[in-house]
Amino acid sequence: MGKLRSGTVGRRFTMLYAAGFLGSGTVLLTLTYLMSGSRVTVAAPEQPPAVPPGPAAAEQRIRDLETQLADVHGQQDHQLLAGSLVALVVMVGVSLLLGRLLAGRVLRPLRLITAATRRISAENLHQRLAVTGPADEVKELADTVDGLLERLEASFVAQRRFVGNASHELRTPLATMRASLDVAVAKPEPAAQTVALAGRLRTELDRVDHLLDGFLVLARAQHGTLADRTPVPLGRPAREALTARAADIAAKRLTVHDEIRTDTWTRGSPALLSRMVENLLDNAIVHNQEGGWIRISTDHDTAGARLVLTTGGHVLDQERVDRLTQPFERLGADRTGPEGSCGLGLSIVAAIVTAHGGRLTLLARPEGGLCVTAALPSAAGPEAGKAAR
Asked: Which end of the chain is less congested by CB atoms within 10 angstroms, N or C?
């Protein structure tokens, strides 16, 4: 039987049952004490003392017997009271023990339901509690939870099916539009207006395609399953992202402080973790000032692995920074609509971090700029696994 934690229903049940047993025992002992009116017979001495005959002697004898009887009654009451107190103390311990046993027995099905519910997540919604037993309140509760899990499973399946279908159905018209533009521009001596219109439409199609890709990644991170979990060194996607964006960093004359470590490992989807780092770095580049700086670092400790990306810049409002993880939320007019931005970057980052069991923290630096920390569960790298073997 598991322990009954302080402040739980089990503790309240224990006290309730104990109070009931103790109250019943107290009433029983009180009634026994009040109703104890048994007569005590005093045996005459074997050799009664010699007294002179007469009425005075008889009266003296009667008074002696009454005194002796009163002493015996007093001694009996004292012994009964002492025994009652001892019995009451014993009843306290017995009441607490019985109360604990009964509370544990009553709450055992609820603890089993709680443990089974905690084991069920988005990845195994097909599991059910399937509690057997009489049709009582506990069985009704378990059946209700099973019904809720069934509805959640149907909702998740429908959402995943939508994500899969949308990736094909929505990209098909975009590809058709691109092909039509290419055909129009490829004609002999196309009109200048046609070429200009095609260029603008391609830009808008790129934005729509980028927005669609962001929606799909966000939906996968929030409602999909991470079937490709594997140990991932956080330093690898960080360096790859820096290398891929070297031209953008140079164009804005940004100084990069590289504090990436190679021994920082986590466990998750390599594709989603790469997307997380790319979005953070893109956000740091696009919303940085000319000639600014970026500090990117990875480290780990007993709490887990961390990716920290810090930028300088203007002083930001922390309340507005806290809302940046919401879709399409931006800071100020200077962050409305930079080329290629769809307002989902940090939303995707937050969803990816949450899907990996981590935590994303956005902190407005008092001296200006932003510090973003992605804290993830740590994992042992291949070298550690070989050493353990």
From this structure: C
Work out the mean pLDDT of the chain and round it to a whole number: 78
Domain boundaries along the sequence of the chain: 9-36+59-119, 170-223, 230-386
What is the rounded CA–CA span in Å between residue 331 and residue 214? 19
CA dihedral 231, 234, 240, 243 (to 10 degrees): -170
Please write the tens of the pLDDT for every residue from 98-153. 777 777 777 777 787 888 777 776 667 777 777 777 777 778 888 888 888 888 87
Whether 142 and 148 have beta carbons less than 8 Å apart is answered as no
CA pair distance 346, 329, nearest whole angstrom: 9
What is this structure's pTM? 0.56
For domain 230-386, the CATH superfamily is Histidine kinase-like ATPase, C-terminal domain (3.30.565.10)
